[in-house]
Amino acid sequence: MAWRIIKESSPWASFMAEKYKNDVRTGRSNLWKQLMPIISDIKRESIIFIGSGECKIWEEPWCIPPLSKPPVVSFTGLLAELHGSNSVMQDVMHAVPEYAKHRLREMVLSNTPDRWVWTGASDGEVSVRAFVRRLQQSPRPRSTWNKIWLKEIPNRINAFLWKLQHGVVTVDSFLKAKNIPLASKCRCCCEQPQEETINHLFARSEVARRVWRALGLGSSTRTRLDLRGIAKEWFDKANQKTRSGMERILLFSLGIWEIWKYRCATTFGEINSVPPDRLFREQMLGIVNLRLEGVSFSSQVSPSV
């Protein structure tokens, strides 16, 4: 889908590209939000073979690296339009690097369409298999929360973590983004309630701070870490092949779930409270020990988490 949008190979793809490519609103399509990083990855490893010159001169890979628009140049059109105006061509030639000047001098337009070619495959075309293989070979770090579906994590928590990772947990900010009017107030804060967002609820609310302090994150949750930082510290850096690593992963998962349970109980008027730190930690470690019972690890050392 992303490749079709880049090439604008169908009326639907052209419509999507034209509608959203310059859209900077926070309320843009969820589909487009998910496609944007994929489109960026593909474009970064693509080149354009020039035919009729219907690609834009700026930010498009007709030359490598692509050109950014200099402030002194007002022209923002297509290569074909550039070749049709000697005065504009001269202005552009004075402002672009030497490699782009050489490319422009040697360029000969034709009647054939411009052709996008992806360098990640021998045939120049993007497929799901080729794109996944390219990502697996990439030296970039794996995305946060990549251990969500470990079998040691309870099923209901697996599913909830997936929703949390994709930002579809029904906190107040999510509902407001769907044009549902409401006065937001975090149910997990008593002293200074703030708007209920995912990051606030699970990282900075009063209940979240108590949970993470009891489980070992301490004051860093308030000052330096947001939810993404906590997940990276407790998921990405945890070695699932060791017991201590699995303990960290499970404690994080259970902590998230306990915060959500408290929030829901408070929302629906149920009496609920977080136990004292030591008791809460012992309860969570008890659940962890049950989940890891009978599991073999490459290292059996289990330091305190």
Task: Produce the secondary structure layout.
Blueprint: H1 2-7, H2 11-20, H3 30-44, E1 46-49, H4 79-83, H5 86-95, H6 98-106, E2 115-118, H7 128-137, H8 155-165, H9 172-177, H10 198-204, H11 206-215, H12 220-223, H13 227-236, H14 243-267, H15 277-291
Antiparallel strand pairs: 1-2
Helix pairs in contact: 8-14, 10-11, 11-14, 11-15, 13-14, 14-15
What does this structure look like?
By secondary structure, the chain is mainly α. It has three domains: 1-46 and 126-132, no CATH class; 51-113, no CATH class; 144-292, no CATH class. It has helices spanning 2-7, 11-20, 30-44, 79-83, 86-95, 98-106, 128-137, 155-165, 172-177, 198-204, 206-215, 220-223, 227-236, 243-267, 277-291; strands at residues 46-49, 115-118. Helix 8 crosses helix 14 (243-267) and helix 11 packs across helix 15 (277-291). The longest helix is centred in the C-terminal third of the chain and has 25 residues, at 243-267.
The topology string of helices and strands comes to: HHHEHHHEHHHHHHHHH
**Percent helix range:** 40-55%
| Order of the strands making up the biggest sheet | 1-2
Note the main sheet: 2 strands, antiparallel
The percent range for strand residues is under 5%
Give the tally of β-strands: 2
Number of helices: 15
Q: C-alpha Rg, in Å?
A: 26 Å
**First and last CA, distance:** 44 Å
**Count of separate structural domains:** 3
Could you say which structural class the secondary elements and strand pairing correspond to?
A: mainly alpha
Shape: elongated
Mean pLDDT: 81
Low confidence ranges: 219-223, 300-305
